[in-house]
């Protein structure tokens, strides 16, 4: 099969790789219909995280089950499935607590499973999925989704569930004012999640017309271009002299976290899902004196797929709008470049 | 009147001070029936916070209203009242959001009000209370509480409400396992708050027999003497191989916060109310990967007095047990010494 490998910073190659085969009775093989590049894939791409040896990459994909191990109970050959960005056994105490990202048996896509066997990355033609029952979610009644549906299903693998996680962490609900810091695919998904949870005042922070347009389509009522202190002043002005009840931090840098905290009112809630990088901090003194609740972290999107999928299938949300570009898998290197240079919000790759 | 002044580290004096008089129409004068020394009073006492000039001290008191300003609507002369540790106007957006500690018009006890007039400390014979309507809570039907009731009412000024705030931040409820880090008056109050909120498994951390005894009286099911990693291992052992759902951090040091985080399961909640000191941090990477929710901070105890008071008056909780020592106001310096050296859990001072 063909699959994407990272060799070093700025060195992404699509190469021939062995076709995946079942290695454990709990495995399934999935033929990938679509995959994508995550903002977090850009960390090793940019060299902020070192790539010590070449390995498969990608952790968001959807596709069709082509083989199942003897112990797989909930999946059949032919099922169209969504793979969450983190696989999970579904049975350990962390999984039972709904924190699948902390699963004791989690394997890293493009890394190794707990038996030390290589696990495929998501950006390839096929993937061996460990703990398939605990990981994959079947899309009922769908065999070959069209491109629009494919995009929305793929968004449930990570960005839409991550935006939803941020919104829950920020205690979004009817009557709560919302600020979303970050206009990447996760931030935009956070806008949609906030709208879906009943917020009617949603301030998205963006300086890019194309992203602001998606934010408005997702329910943003205001777009703020200012940053830092000025951003907080603008939020206060828009909200009649108070800061926001709920703030979603969807970037992960020191600047974005600072901006998010400045926009949160005393007693408000901050949902943070941006992978912490570049010195991002949660200053205990500020949280203490302002009574800001902080929740979020790596999203267990496995949890959220069933309820979000229902809304996708009903047509009440269209999270796939974050994919503004589609490329063939062979152009994965260009996909990384487009996202790195922010020429694209998010790229869908089709093998 | 006689009132307690701090002159410098380890220099507490009870002195003659001017009797308080009404300065604003929204003021009330309260004759103090009982006051106490807070763990946070020990910071300047120990010199960890500098005392640049002598000033009145103390922020927890109960007593009888003896005068009210012309604009005071909810209080009458003769009312027995509880003063929360933070006064508040009750009308600004922060107060209306239930975050009275962030009140735009808050005056610091023993400091100045927003007009720059001196405000009395709580450890004295009488106190001018700014924004009396927004600050004081009347104890209905009580004119002269006996010593046991006096202790419980006084605890609602700060420690019991603060323990309750920690428990809410830690999302304590029926079926949740609870760990309380800190065996001071706030930590012990946190045990009682957790028990009151329906937790049936409460692990208190203590190395002092007298404090452990109060913890058990308040509902602790287990006492753990270990610290750091060993404490977390013991918690996991007691809970059958998992960490706690809810952890209350009631100290505020780097060590106690680290211990609290180590005891929290992935996806669990940490309620923190210990005033941050000595390098306490909220490490963003740990919170992100473990999905730990953090809430708490300075407690707006004003909010909680009505519901906690109901339980005190009904006799279903007895938070006054944290006062193991009673001294006359004139011995305030000795009260500080007793708390500093941990000879006393908490001292009640009676003028």
TrEMBL record, chains A, B:
State what protein this is by name. Threonine dehydrogenase and related Zn-dependent dehydrogenases
Alcohol dehydrogenase-like N-terminal domain ranges (all copies):
25-133
Q: What keywords were assigned to this record?
A: Metal-binding, Oxidoreductase, Zinc
Q: Which cofactor does it need?
A: Zn(2+)
| Keyword ATP-binding (UniProt) | no
- What PANTHER family would the database entry show? DEHYDROGENASE, ZINC-CONTAINING, PUTATIVE (AFU_ORTHOLOGUE AFUA_2G02810)-RELATED (PTHR42813:SF2), ZINC-TYPE ALCOHOL DEHYDROGENASE-LIKE (PTHR42813)
Specify one Pfam family: ADH_zinc_N
Say which family it is in: Belongs to the zinc-containing alcohol dehydrogenase family.
What organism, scientifically named, is this protein from? Answer: Arthrobacter rhombi
Q: One GO MF term, please?
A: oxidoreductase activity
Q: Alcohol dehydrogenase-like C-terminal domain: from which residue to which, for each copy?
A: 185-310
């Amino acid at each position: 099969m063909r699959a994407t490998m990272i060799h070093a910073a700025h060195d992404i190659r699509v190469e021939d790789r062995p076709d995946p085969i079942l290695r454990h009775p709990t495995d399934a093989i999935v033929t990938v219909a679509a995959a994508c590049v995550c903002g977090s894939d850009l960390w090793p791409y940019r060299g902020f995280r070192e790539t010590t040896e070449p390995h498969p990459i990608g952790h968001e994909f959807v596709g069709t089950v082509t083989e199942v191990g003897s112990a797989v109970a909930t999946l059949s050959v032919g099922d169209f499935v969504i793979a969450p960005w983190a696989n999970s056994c579904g049975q350990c105490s962390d999984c039972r607590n709904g924190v699948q990202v902390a699963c004791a048996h989690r394997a890293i896509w493009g890394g190794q499973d707990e038996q030390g066997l290589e696990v495929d990355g998501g950006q390839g033609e096929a993937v061996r999925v460990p703990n398939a029952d605990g990981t994959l979610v079947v899309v009922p009644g769908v065999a070959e989704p069209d491109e629009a549906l494919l995009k929305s299903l793929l968004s449930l693998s990570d960005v839409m569930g991550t935006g939803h996680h941020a919104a829950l962490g920020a205690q979004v609900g009817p009557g709560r004012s919302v600020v979303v810091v970050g206009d990447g695919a996760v931030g935009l998904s956070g806008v949609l999640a906030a709208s879906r949870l009943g917020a009617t005042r949603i301030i998205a922070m963006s300086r890019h017309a194309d992203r602001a347009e998606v934010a408005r389509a997702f329910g943003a009522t205001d777009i703020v271009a200012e940053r830092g202190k000025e951003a907080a002043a603008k939020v206060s002005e828009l909200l009649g002299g108070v800061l926001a009840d709920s703030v979603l931090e969807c970037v992960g840098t020191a600047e974005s976290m600072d901006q998010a905290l400045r926009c949160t009112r005393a007693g408000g809630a901050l949902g943070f899902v941006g992978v912490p990088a570049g010195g991002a901090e949660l200053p205990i003194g500020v949280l203490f004196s302002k009574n800001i609740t902080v929740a979020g972290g790596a999203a267990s999107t496995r949890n959220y797929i069933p309820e979000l999928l229902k809304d996708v299938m009903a047509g009440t949300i269209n999270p796939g709008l974050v994919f503004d570009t589609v490329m063939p898998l062979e152009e994965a290197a260009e996909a990384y470049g487009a996202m790195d240079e922010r020429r694209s919000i998010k790229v869908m790759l089709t093998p």
